[in-house]
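May I ask for a protein sequence together with how it folds?
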Amino acid sequence: MINVAIDGPAGAGKSSIARFVAGKLGYIYVDTGALYRTVALKVANCGLTAEQKEDIEALLGTTTVGIEFVNGEQRMMLDGADVTDSIRTPEVSMMASAVSAIPAVRAYLLNTQRRLAAENNVIMDGRDIGTVVLPDAQIKIFLTASPEDRATRRFDELKAKGMDVNYDDVLADIKTRDYNDSHRAVAPLKPAPDSVFADTTGNEFEQSVALIESIINDRLEEVK
């Protein structure tokens, strides 16, 4: 199986780019951030905070997180309900960043991620895919862009969904997530030593897709 690991900070366009490229290549796309968002939604719905680590660990024992693919699109399931749209709010994003630092949460989701990669050609994105989840992936990419560029993309995305958001708040959230993700004790955000660095600052979507496709195709030639 061919595994492509794409890591990078919040709002870098990992999900949209990886999903599109996976479709072109006929690979399964796995948005691991959605897994953490789903757990975060359960934590929030139960009225817990990220500081209540023991309660969250106990909660995992009665939580079922699943992935279904409908017409090639990843749909997130929480305790049997489709929560794909519910997990895409700023509040859930911040909670996901916090709960992802909890070792029990990471261990809970690790097997799901590795099983999908073992059974399929995948493009998997997240924060620690190339360093922790799939350290033996044949292709590793660290995808990033400036905080301002990423905030603009996320702001436009949320506005398009009809959400009442402020650009400065989105930018502040992006910077907070960057700090939290890169400074957490467990599996911090950082490029794998053998990853290819891809900066999409200022790119149109098509340019970013072309860049990632080029990197993948070049590496596929090398690993054949």
Remarks:
- The first strand starts at residue 3 and ends at 7.
- The beta strands are 3-7, 28-31, 65-70, 73-78, 81-82, 122-126, 139-144, 196-199.
- DSSP finds nine helices and eight strands in the chain.
